[in-house]
Specification:
Helix content: 25-40%
Structural class: mainly alpha
Order of helices and strands: HHHHH
Number of domains: 2
Number of helices: 5
Oligomer: single chain
Strand content: under 5%
Shape: globular
Distance between the termini: 38 Å
Number of strands: 0
Radius of gyration: 16 Å
Largest sheet: none
Length: about 110
């Protein structure tokens, strides 16, 4: 059954108070080589589901492009936000083929 409580989450959290991690490109470069699918299959017997949002399983979960009131609020800060926030839905890398591995490692 569906609950409104956030789903349990295991994650690596990077301390953004450290100068190195304040750069979003550094954080992205650490995300791209993380092969969740292989780790989940070989270490955890496919027992985990990848978390896509801090608030996974609730109405506050991130999904799709911003719209409505959310977009209205973000528009005030558009010049300070990454442009792709308004044009590309957030997706974590999915390692479903050897080609994907190469693609994401090159991006990192």
């Amino acid at each position: 059954f569906k609950t409104t409580s956030p789903e349990p989450m295991q994650a690596f959290m990077l301390n953004q108070r450290r100068r190195l991690f304040q750069d979003r490109l550094v954080r992205a470069a650490l995300t791209y080589p993380f092969d969740f699918e292989t780790m989940n299959r070989t270490l955890f017997y496919n027992s985990n589901t990848r978390t896509q949002s801090y608030f996974q399983g609730t109405e506050l979960a991130s999904s799709g492009l911003p719209q409505g009131k959310e977009l209205e609020i973000l528009e005030k800060y558009r010049d300070k936000l990454p442009p792709e926030l308004f044009t590309q839905e957030f997706k974590l890398p999915v390692y479903d083929s050897p080609q994907a591995e190469r693609k994401y490692l090159k991006q990192a």
